[in-house]
Hints:
Largest interface: A-B, 44 and 44 residues
Oligomer: heterodimer
Number of helices of chain A: 2
Helix content of chain A: 10-25%
Order of helices and strands of chain A: HEEEHEEEEEEEE
CATH architecture of the largest domain in chain A: Sandwich
CATH class of the largest domain in chain A: Mainly Beta
Distance between the termini of chain B: 54 Å
Strand content of chain A: 35-45%
Number of strands of chain A: 11
Shape of chain A: elongated
Amino acid sequence: MTQTLRFIAQALLYVPFMVLIGYFSTEPAYRHLDPGEALVRLSLSHAGSRVSECRQRTPEELAKMPPNMRAPLDCPRERLPVTVELEMDGVLVYRIVSAPSGLRRDLASTVYWRRVVSAGAHRFTVRLKDKREGDFNYVKEIAVTLDPGRVLVIDFNPGQGGFIFRL
Amino acid sequence: MLKRIQSLGQWAFLRVEGLFNLAFGDRLNPLYYLGPLSYFMFWIVVASGLYLYVFFETGVNEAYDSVENLTHAQWYFGGIMRSLHRYASDAMVLTMLLHLTRHFAFDRYRSFHWFSWVSGVVLLWLVYAAGINGYMLPWDRLAQFVVVATAEWFDVLPLFKGALIRNFIYSEGVSDRLFSLLSFIHIGLPLATLALLWVHTHRVPSAKTTPAWQITATVTVALIVLSLTKPAVSQEHADLSAAVTTIGYDWFYLPVYALLYRWTPGEVWLLVGGATALLFLLPWLPPKLMRKGKLFHVLVHPDNRIVAAREGETVLDAVLRDGIALPFECRNGGCGVCKGTVTYGAVDHGAHQPSALTEQEKREGKALFCCATPLSDIEIEYVPVSTPGGIPVRVYVARVHKMARLADDVMQVFLKVEGDEKLHYYPGQHINIILEDGANRSFSFATAPQDSELIELQIRWIKDGRFTTRLFTEMKEGDSVRFEGPLGSFFLREDSAKPIIFVAGSTGFAPVKSMVEYAFRTGMKRQMVLYWGTRSRRDMYLAELAEQWAREHPNFRFVPVLSDPLPEDNWTGRTGLVHEAILQDFPDLSGYQIYACGSAAMVAAAHPAFIAHGLSQDDCFSDAFNLAPQIARATPQAEMVRLGGGPA
């Protein structure tokens, strides 16, 4: 093979290399959501109630404790699991009983759930229970219209009244 | 099944490499440099990354804006650097995967190869982690996808349980500190990659980490052309309130992320974990009964050295590991540079290009040492082109300048190379004097390289020795001699501070003289002691010189040892075997370097004794230390394994 032909052949063999690198670095495009779809994300971090009520220490008990440790209440560290339910258009789509995190089960329970839904009008009902007895103590219902490509975030903050829906 | 897959892989690689050989030639074929090319890509990524880092700002808005500004306002350099950063990263994944696949196909991952294989797998994951981390930095839609997907993927692990994604629920939850953290990781991971790269290649003898300059040049040009024709650009600004819909996607780094939303994150963890476990365990699959691999011995000419080769190890790797400068280039059975002759024993020729080694050549005993693995103890011969340090091996013509008897049976010969050429060599190396019929005889340089104007040899007469008999009876000053050199990897190592013990037997004093004189000339302060063992006093032909060294140099000591002193010697010094005298004086040799040169019997006896007394293999230098008895029996030439004048 002559030198010229060799150079041409080398150039020709480098072209597929460049095409391979250049093409697959961006193509084919990845379609994460179809055009008529939106995303619902439920995310919360909330500590359930303590497994038992706090107890008032007696004066005798307090007197036996070091002065800097004399907290009037004796509270258990462990938390109860948090139960969360989400209904979409009247159908229960998600339910979880989330255990508290932490080695001593004394930290917040975390919940994350995502679902791609068709864009348009939807009705969501979300419930949370963080106590041992009784029914769900936080419930919220909302009707929203999700535009294509939008994200509905369902969060929870008891300081702001419970569930927060954010588009 | 595995064998069939590997055979198919070998067939495919050899065909494609053969095709590339037509265009690139067999020495500049990029496919023979997949490992070095990965290294080179890494350096491009590092260099371009450092430049990008100068302009990159670690803030939510600043990250995107600074990258955009660099890409567009400084397209002529910053933009190209960004594109190079991306494309070289992609190319690195490609070359690494091909490198890994080739080693799998050619069955170079089992047995002692396991460490390189496993460290290579870890490297691959590190590169993936660094690349994925890099895609988070520009804070565009792809970055948003990668960040959220990573958080969602990791959140299924019990450690996180949905806590990680809380950072990426709202746009305002992302702070400038995230980008400081990501930048920190993006520096730390490549540093870890570099450290592991060093470990990965360190165990491969004479591993190449740089491709030929012609390849680096053309690959760089190709990447620059690609950067100019299709510059790497950002996508839209990240916006966590809007879902990622359709994005440009890097399929070299992110294929697993596409699976995350087709499968569950747990299933993707199973896939990645399973694949990793499989790759890690592959060197031991299918499991075989525990069996220690065989060890073969390779007698290498013209170095006259015997090295050990592990079962499945190529001859090239074995001899390179022992410091022999056997020439090689592609290391993949394509170029034929490592071709030599197997003069004894059997080898498996391995997979190679037919053009590099023909069937006729195989019948003639030729082999490609980069592919051939010993099936028995073997003896090989190669044509040296260079020695350690890159000194070329050449054939010289010299005149006998001067001859003098040092003892009844030892002749001091000074050779002067014809012309004005100055011979460069390392102290301790040797030359091969070429006889009329092409046979050769090895003799060590006896002077320091600085005195190479006249080459001094000390040659002992061997009964019935063809060359030495002629030397002692016919040769005279002015006669012409042809020799090749310098040869051998037995030379003084200057990268250690350990005290040195020289062990010379008979004319093994010659290379020791070269090394000691070199040490004195260069002002070496290491403690040195010379044990010179001969039968009687008259055989110790330059004892006065050694004694003079001891008087003049406080860091040098001389211990003569006679094994069979004559009555007229009136010998009151040390007697017995020279290595036993050393063991008496140095019960613990762990802190020493030993250079031994003498008869094969002497070093064969001394070597295990030295090792048993704590001497490290790495500090034990001799051209006869690895003598294998079975080769000595099977091949009489093995008896030539001695420098400074053996049977000749």
